[in-house]
Amino acid sequence: MAVEDALVKTFNALTQGIPKLMLTQVAQSEKRKEAILKNCASNLTKTGFEDCDGLESHKVKTRTVLL
């Protein structure tokens, strides 16, 4: 019985940390997206054309994080 209780407590502790970790990753992903968008706007004003290659790779990373 003590072993089962210990396993349940360990499982609960591990699963409670998962949502917090995912929220942290999403927040970091959003910060990265903002940085890419600022860079795109900067490139647009400097060169007269939009250079947003990084944004497409960011979308793939975001989908991976959110799944």
UniProtKB/TrEMBL annotation:
It comes from the Eukaryota. This is Uncharacterized protein.
